[in-house]
């Protein structure tokens, strides 16, 4: 097969196109290292593994010894020793019964072992995913992460349950069969094993091709899941802009590449069986010709020839099975590599010697520089002091760095240089959980969970009692909304709250922040999805909420932050000006331009 013939749709996608839907192909990693690492998951399940190995070994012994008994039985018939024949037939029956029982135990133990190992792997992977840095999650497709948790781990489960016992049994059968063949006739055994070299060469060649295609297949499957997840979540936007034809085209591009790669991998996997059968048939011819010659010259008996024919088939069958399951093993190893790639990622740092809760909530940014991507700086020498209990608003055009300030304060990202202090302590010295425990945040994109309203409100403070929860609901003006629902606080939100309007979801998110009772409150366009009347109620309630608390507000609607103690105007990652609403209007600078532009009805 030449290079032209092996080109797949996956490779065609690597060419420049209108939309790149697939990442570059990663070079195949060391399969042996991945396999060794995968075996570490069997350590905690050694009892099941030992039991499975014992069952497999017992089954192999029965399977290997039975043909020799058959050979002796045939020789007993030719010699007329019918008394011995009865004993050997009875022993053969017992061995086959034991073999059947061991096969049953193998199936049960394989199922238990696979599910227990995969359960541990899924737990490790999920624990890792929820502890990954925000930066990693932002830069990787969510659908691909979910594909690793589902498809890749499921492939590993299938391989363990279906192929592990076959792999061990095949290896032991080959060894046992060769030993028995040598015990019967070493000359005929050596002649029979001449086909082994041909088997190794063919298997090695096909395996190299299969490894390549199976890895490409897993990468494409992750990309396909990422596209599906992205477009399902953004379905309203897709429909609103009539992008269905383009979405279908992009999806088809990836799906076609996956189909072509899957066909190639399946064809190569299917070639293993026929190739091994041809080689095995050559071995049968060698046994028939040479065995007949040896029998004529009295070197072996007819029973030995019969046993060799069975052993040759028995020798070839595990090789065929190993060839057939090789594709499954390659798929599992490709999936394991993708799983281990996430497990090897650096977890979000939780270092910090300070575990004392925040006392005042005084915030200082000192000469902070930051960039999401190297050489594309977002904040330049950013310095700002927010006194305890003060309300500070960040305003500015989109992309000026407002949300970045919040990301850095929450330690979602680490700064490149400078310092961020809270109550005089560098936030890098504050233990992560301690830092975030005293900060409540309400984002513009509301996030609720498929759970009851009660549990969604208590998400920020699980130890809060019902009275505290109801008080928070009243302050956030969502108590009336809750009272109108069928089961009140026990109403289950479906699909993460999609049975509520965006404004209603935002009210609940604000109520959740109320219940956290934080020292520092961050509001990122927290009232962007509520009507003007509800916004007025929330603003009134927030006056009480912000009392004696440090508040940092990101706002585009300047009418909502006119009472702020300080308004900071940002422009291209720098502070353009700061002061009160009246002071900034009097300066007639950037804020003055933003204010007049907004109230003229123009977009900022």
Automatic annotation (TrEMBL):
Please list the coiled coil stretches.
Answer: none
Residue spans crossing the bilayer = 48-66, 86-105, 164-182, 188-207, 282-311
A Gene Ontology molecular-function term? ABC-type oligopeptide transporter activity
The way it spans or sits in the membrane comes to: Multi-pass membrane protein
Q: What is its main location?
A: membrane
User: What are the alphabetically sorted keywords of the record?
Assistant: ATP-binding, Cell membrane, Membrane, Nucleotide-binding, Transmembrane, Transmembrane helix, Transport
Instruction: Output the Pfam families linked to this UniProt entry.
Output: ABC_membrane, ABC_tran
One term under GO cellular component = plasma membrane
Q: ABC transmembrane type-1 domain: from which residue to which, for each copy?
A: 50-331
The record's subcellular location field reads: Cell membrane
ABC transporter domain span: 363-597
The domain of life for this entry's organism is Bacteria
Q: What is this protein called?
A: ATP-binding cassette subfamily B protein
- The organism encoding this protein is Dielma fastidiosa
């Amino acid at each position: 097969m030449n290079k032209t013939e092996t080109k797949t749709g996956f490779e065609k996608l690597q060419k420049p196109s209108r939309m790149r839907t697939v990442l570059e192909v990663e070079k195949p990693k060391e399969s042996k290292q991945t396999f060794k690492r995968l075996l570490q998951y069997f350590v905690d399940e050694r009892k099941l593994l030992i039991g499975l190995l014992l069952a497999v070994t017992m089954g192999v012994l029965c399977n290997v010894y039975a043909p020799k008994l058959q050979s002796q039985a045939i020789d007993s018939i030719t010699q007329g020793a019918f008394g011995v024949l009865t004993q050997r037939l009875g022993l053969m029956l017992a061995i086959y019964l034991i073999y059947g029982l061991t096969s049953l135990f193998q199936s049960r133990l394989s199922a238990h072992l696979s599910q227990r190992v995969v359960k541990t792997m899924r737990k490790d992977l999920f624990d890792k995913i929820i502890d990954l840095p925000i930066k990693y999650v932002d830069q990787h497709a969510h659908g691909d992460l979910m594909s690793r948790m589902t498809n890749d781990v499921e492939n590993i489960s299938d391989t363990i349950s279906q192929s592990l016992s076959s792999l061990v049994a095949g290896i032991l059968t080959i060894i046992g069969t060769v030993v028995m063949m040598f015990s019967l006739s070493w000359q005929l055994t050596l002649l029979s094993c001449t086909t082994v070299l041909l088997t190794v060469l063919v298997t090695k060649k096909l395996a190299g091709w299969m490894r390549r295609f199976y890895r490409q297949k897993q990468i494409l499957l992750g990309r396909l899941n990422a596209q599906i997840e992205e477009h399902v979540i953004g379905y309203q936007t897709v429909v609103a802009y009539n992008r269905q034809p383009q979405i279908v085209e992009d999806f088809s591009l990836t799906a076609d590449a996956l189909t072509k790669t899957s066909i190639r991998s399946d064809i190569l996997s299917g070639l293993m069986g026929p190739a091994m059968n041809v080689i095995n048939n050559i071995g049968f011819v060698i046994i028939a010709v040479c065995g007949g010659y040896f029998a004529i010259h009295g070197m072996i008996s007819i029973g030995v020839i019969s046993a060799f024919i069975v052993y040759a088939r028995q020798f070839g069958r595990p090789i065929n099975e190993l060839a057939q399951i090789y594709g499954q093993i390659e798929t599992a190893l490709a999936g394991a590599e993708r799983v281990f790639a996430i497990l090897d990622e650096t977890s979000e740092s939780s270092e910090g010697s300070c575990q004392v809760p925040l006392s005042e909530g005084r915030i200082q940014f000192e000469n902070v520089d930051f960039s999401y991507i190297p050489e594309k700086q977002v904040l330049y020498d950013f310095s700002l002091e927010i006194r305890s209990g003060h309300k500070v608003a960040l305003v500015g055009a989109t992309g000026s760095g407002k949300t970045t300030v919040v990301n850095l304060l929450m330690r979602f990202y680490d700064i490149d240089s400078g310092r961020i202090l809270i109550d005089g302590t560098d936030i890098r010295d504050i233990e992560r959980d301690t830092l975030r425990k005293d900060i409540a945040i309400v984002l513009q994109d509301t996030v609720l969970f498929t759970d009851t309203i009660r549990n969604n409100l208590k998400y920020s403070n699980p130890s809060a009692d019902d009275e505290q929860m109801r008080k928070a609901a009243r302050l956030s003006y969502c108590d009336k909304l809750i009272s109108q629902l069928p089961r009140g606080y026990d109403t289950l939100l479906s699909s993460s709250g999609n049975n509520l309007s965006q404004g209603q979801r935002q009210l609940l998110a604000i109520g959740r922040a109320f219940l956290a009772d934080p020292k520092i409150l961050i509001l990122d366009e927290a009232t962007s999805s509520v009507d003007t009347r509800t916004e007025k109620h929330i603003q009134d309630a927030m006056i009480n909420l912000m009392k004696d608390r440090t508040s940092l507000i990101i706002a585009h609607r300047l009418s909502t932050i006119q009472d702020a103690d300080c308004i900071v105007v940002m422009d291209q990652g720098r502070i353009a000006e700061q002061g009160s609403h009246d002071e900034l209007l009097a300066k007639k600078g950037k804020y003055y331009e933003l204010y007049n532009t907004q109230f003229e009805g123009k977009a900022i």
